[in-house]
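lol ok so funny story. i was supposed to be doing the assay writeup but got distracted and ended up predicting the structure for this chain instead. priorities right. anyway since i did it might as well share w the group, maybe its usefull for someone
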Amino acid sequence: MKIPVLNISQFKESTPLNDVYINSFSNHIQLNKNLINNPHSHNFYLCVLFTEGTGTHEIDFNSYRINPGKVFFLKPGQTHFWKFETQPEGFIIFHSQEFYELKFLEHKLNSFPFFYSYQNPPVLELEPKQLYELNLKFQEAYIEYLKANLLRELKIVNCLNHIYIELTRAYTVNINLEKLNSSNYSGILETLENLINTHFYKEKFPKFYAYELNITTKHLNRVVKKTINKTTSQLISERIILEAKRLIVHSHDNLSNIAYTLEFSDYAYFSKFFKSKTGMTPLDFRKKYF
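and the output, tada:
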């Protein structure tokens, strides 16, 4: 069983706009409960603001508490699901990369730190004053989405840009901005992450990625170490393990087939690799998860 990948058209309610969807969270889960009850991924960017409710949000096997003031960010391809303890409320926004970047040709989504790297936490907790102010901005975007006014799409993109700017300021309040704005290293890391996502099944060593980036393996390790304090090998291993966990939990394949899918020579090697990174065998992980 493959993890379902949802697209924006499945969530449409009001007069559709290309590549964007905005809703109150309570209305969203009521209308789409058959789509979102199980683990799934998206082919678009997602931003959720919670103003009420509690529970957990699992993103790629990491669990985060849901409570008023929490904001969550997802990039395309990440697997997630919700589990609520009390009734949630807030706002949810989906949009494609093109919806934003075609309006801001000189500004890319990856310039926002929560969309820049998978290494950056996909969650932010707002202070009460920030929550109040951003809730108004989300409301403004939602009201505009429901209407059919002149220049509606441009207004929504401007609302979205304002929201992301304010969220970035809150997100980076305790971060060294000089390090964040090191564009050369940031660009290399972004390209590396994209290359790993594309090639990790077959290419499991840093040498390949350094060659693709036209830099030495030593320099690539220097970039990764300085930006996120990891090694290139760690990034590759983490991506392999994440995919392994997804397949172990969300597919009905036997573990030998999963090892084959991930292009390991045999199950024994795959099991040894998985245990060295997680502390448990693939079978133990499957049993523990359920």
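Residues 152-171 form the longest helix (20 residues). Residues 210 and 217 are 5 Å apart (CA to CA).
back to the writeup now i swear
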